[in-house]
From TrEMBL:
Signal peptide: none annotated. GO terms for cellular component: protein-DNA complex. The lineage of its organism: Bacteria, Bacillati, Actinomycetota, Actinomycetes, Kitasatosporales. Keywords: DNA-binding, Transcription, Transcription regulation. This is LysR family transcriptional regulator. Pfam families: HTH_1 (PF00126), LysR_substrate (PF03466). Belongs to the LysR transcriptional regulatory family. Residues 9-60 form the HTH lysR-type domain. PROSITE patterns: HTH_LYSR. InterPro entries: LysR_HTH_N (IPR000847), LysR_subst-bd (IPR005119), WH-like_DNA-bd_sf (IPR036388), WH_DNA-bd_sf (IPR036390). One of its GO terms (molecular function) is DNA-binding transcription factor activity. It comes from Streptomyces sp. R44. The keyword S-adenosyl-L-methionine does not apply. The keyword Thylakoid does not apply.
Length: 302
């Protein structure tokens, strides 16, 4: 028995064949099943669609009016089925991706390039912003996946599942001529008297969070929210700052990065955030993110 959305396909088959019996043979249904479907469609539109003849049927005036509409419905259903199949097979569809700023220096673009190579039919739209924003958007169903640095001591919001990708170490950025610029590594205590450039007056909301929790309280002389401003201030000799390892390759040439001693180095936990039941595209992108994170971790200084 055909499903209700197949009524129009049955109607068009009868219109082409000029017979319930012939249409039933083509569709693989019984003649009575086709007859019941046509009766159901006639009840739905409120008019007879076929004139019953001694041998077969022919379209009534109402049936002739219905033909182009039935063809349109059939074509739309075929398009919908194709689009759903494309989503399932990753030959099409959209992935709404979010990420915090320094993740876009290496992790996200490398993963996105690998994903595009494997699934070129999927469109990826990407938005940058703070992690708290992306967690909210994933929870609201407005993003399919986001790369975030979630707070260590707070659970994710309802409707969000976190998938750990890596723990990212911090480096310290110094001006080229700084006395410690040539060192292999430094202790944070050696830089206690430096002016530290930070992105927030509340150090617990900055990259310094783990170091502050361990008892290090830097002198903060300059507030700068974006990386261009922070590194410009470092290059000018106005202070020093922390730089995430994933952003190291994008640091300007007049700034030197020095490794922080393993006993002092602050780490940032980086995760992918998805809904509890991620889309097919989000699951595929998550797998690529994990591969990319493993490769990047292998090249980090710790």
């Amino acid at each position: 028995m055909p499903h209700s959305h197949g009524l129009y396909e049955v109607f068009l088959a009868v219109a082409r064949a000029g017979s319930f019996t012939a249409a039933a043979r083509q569709l693989g249904y019984t003649q009575s099943a086709v007859s019941r479907q046509i009766q159901s469609l006639e009840d739905e539109v409120g008019a007879e669609l076929f004139e019953r003849l001694p041998r077969g049927v022919r379209l009534s005036e109402a049936g002739r009016v219905l033909v182009p509409h039935a063809e349109a419905v059939r074509d739309r259903l075929a398009t919908a089925r194709a689009e759903v199949e494309a989503l399932r097979s990753l030959d099409g569809g959209l992935l709404r991706l979010g990420s915090f700023s320094s993740a876009t220096a290496a992790l996200v673009p490398r993963a996105q390039a690998a994903f595009r190579e494997r699934h070129p039919g999927v469109t990826v739209s990407r938005v940058e912003g703070p992690s708290v924003k992306h967690l909210r958007l994933v929870a609201a169903g407005e993003e399919d996946l986001a790369v975030v640095g979630p707070p260590q001591d707070a659970p994710p919001p309802p409707g969000v599942t976190l998938h750990h990708l890596l723990d990212e170490p911090m480096l310290v950025a110094l001006a080229r001529g700084h006395a410690r610029a040539g060192r292999r590594s430094v202790r944070l205590a050696e830089l206690a008297d430096e002016e530290w450039i930070v992105g927030n007056e509340r150090l617990e909301d900055t990259l310094f969070r783990p170091a502050v929790a361990a008892g290090f309280r830097p002198r903060t002389g300059l507030l700068a929210h974006d990386w261009i401003a922070k590194l410009g201030a470092v290059a000018a000799g106005l202070g020093v700052t922390l730089v995430p390892a994933l952003a190291a390759a994008s640091v300007r040439p007049d700034v030197t990065l020095v490794t922080i001693h393993p006993e002092d180095v602050p780490y940032r936990r980086i995760c992918a955030a998805t809904p509890p039941a991620p889309t097919v595209a989000a699951s595929a992108f998550l797998a690529v993110l994990r591969e990319t994170a493993r490769k990047l971790t292998d090249s980090m200084p710790y």
